[in-house]
Design a protein that fits this description.
The chain is of the alpha+beta class. It has a domain at 222-374: 3-Layer(aba) Sandwich (Peroxisomal Thiolase, Chain A, domain 1). It has eleven helices and 13 strands. The protein has helices at residues 20-37, 39-44, 55-62, 72-76, 95-111, 135-143, 158-172, 263-285, 302-313, 326-329, 336-343; strands spanning 4-12, 16-19, 66-69, 120-124, 148-152, 178-184, 204-212, 221-231, 237-238, 260-261, 292-297, 353-360, 364-374. A nine-stranded mixed sheet has the order 5-4-6-7-1-8-13-12-11, sandwiched between helices. Strands 2-3 form a two-stranded antiparallel sheet. The chain has a two-stranded antiparallel sheet with strand order 9-10. Bound molecules: coenzyme A. The site of coenzyme A has 22 residues, from helix 3 and helix 8.
């Protein structure tokens, strides 16, 4: 069985950036209007007044300072509060495939490969723009890859779950050059109308190239010592948008058809689950905690990441040990931990260990234990 190594990573960052200040200004305007329009129902107690958002709360509660989105004008328009994405014809590359191709090109260039070398593509993300044909198959055609391609969804954990599938394919010999892609257009499923959710997410797409150790060309590469996935059902993070919506007999709150969560409960349930998961994974692989030089954790909340790292190591961690990208990117769902890996992996010597870990809805947790192979 071949050992799988990561030979390249890539990142697509949308050109439109949105600050907390801009987001708060737009939602405040929208809330003032909503409250004025619903004055009578608010006074009769039928509906609750919408409270104003605050920049101070956002930074303090989450560590999010800014995010990138596919369309800033729609997101900040108080009458719309969601991106404005022009409809594309069937002959054009779809938007998720397009951002996948950009991220894939960077990752393949880093690996010294081209699309023609790829024989497996897995697109994993929280929301796919259509049921079929798979976005991954569209990407396969666009980059001239062979083999097979498919889409999958394990919400924020989609990257590590897809990496495990790619590793399994390489180990078993069913693929020799796999591409894992995470096109997260979170602005399409975020709830920009409610202050408890409007600041959470940002858009991005990541790419990871995986190959058998013996095929890796010269240059930086990361040996995958092991992958481990775990799930446990919870309703605390949920999005009910789906193909049965139009057939459902009953009245749904439209806020159920976008992201929603009970953030406090998620924080309390998921932190210990993740720390325990990583600890047992390292132990079973015989990797001492002290030899872990970096942790690229899922980027949902700064406090969560600090707590997980502290629980694991038994001490406060230095910022460079568990890099944070929330200040610039916000929560980019499955792309978050891979963005941290892509941007913050300098200063690790060959032979040193690191952990890539994502977690989120499901609940789900995935860890990938890495050893730097070469510079
Ligand atoms: N501006 C001002 N006030 C806000 C606000 C905003 N944008 N959003 C919420 N508040 C208010 C709430 O209404 C609440 O008011 P109340 O006390 O009068 O009821 C108060 O601030 C505290 O809200 P709460 O939701 O309990 O805050 P929190 O400390 O739990 O932080 C999250 C919220 C989302 C940042 C936090 O729970 C979190 O990050 N959880 C991790 C889970 C996660 O992000 N998962 C994503 C998928 S992995």
């Amino acid at each position: 069985m071949s050992h799988a190594v990561i030979t390249g990573t890539g990142l697509f960052t949308p050109p439109d950036g949105v600050t907390n200040e801009e987001l708060v200004a737009s939602l405040s305007k929208a809330n003032e209007r909503w409250n004025a329009e619903h004055r009578e129902q608010i006074e009769s107690g039928e509906v609750a007044e919408r409270d104003m958002p605050s920049e101070r709360f956002i930074v303090k509660a989450s560590g999010v300072g800014h995010r990138y989105v596919m369309d800033k004008s729609g997101v900040l328009d108080p009458d719309r509060l969601c991106p404005r994405l022009p409809l594309r014809s069937e002959d054009e590359l779809s938007i998720q495939a397009e951002i996948c191709v950009t991220a894939a090109e960077e990752a393949l260039a880093q690996a010294g490969r081209t699309g023609a070398d790829v024989d497996a593509i897995i697109v994993g993300c929280s929301n796919l723009q259509r049921a079929y044909p798979a976005v991954a198959i569209e990407v396969q055609q666009a980059i001239g890859a062979g083999g097979f391609a498919y889409d999958m969804n394990v919400a924020c954990s989609s990257a590590t779950f897809a990496i495990q599938n790619a590793v399994d394919a390489i180990r078993s010999g069913s693929a020799r050059c796999a591409l894992v892609l995470n096109p997260e257009i979170t602005s399409g499923h975020n709830n920009f109308e409610l202050r408890e959710f409007h600041f959470i997410f940002g858009d991005a797409c990541t790419a990871v190239v995986l190959e058998p150790e013996e095929d890796a060309l010269e240059g930086e590469s990361w040996e995958i010592l092991g992958t481990r996935l775990a799930t446990k059902f919870s309703n605390n993070i949920r999005n009910d948008a789906g193909f049965l919506n139009r057939s459902e007999d009953g009245v749904r709150d439209p806020h159920e058809l976008v992201f929603r969560q009970n953030g406090r409960k998620v924080f309390k349930d998921v932190c210990p689950m993740v720390a325990k998961h990583i600890r047992s994974h390292l132990k079973d692989l015989g990797v001492p905690l002290e030899s872990v030089k970096r942790m690229w954790l899922h980027q949902a909340n700064l406090g969560m990441n600090k707590l997980i790292a502290k629980t694991l190591l038994g001490r406060e961690v230095e910022p460079e040990e568990a890099p944070v990208i929330l200040d610039e990117y916000a929560n980019t769902s499955s792309a978050g931990s891979v963005i941290a890996f892509h941007k913050h992996r300098d200063g690790i010597a060959a032979g040193e260990h690191a952990v890539l870990c994502s977690f989120g809805a499901g609940y789900s947790v995935g860890s990938v234990i890495l050893r730097k192979r070469s510079d």
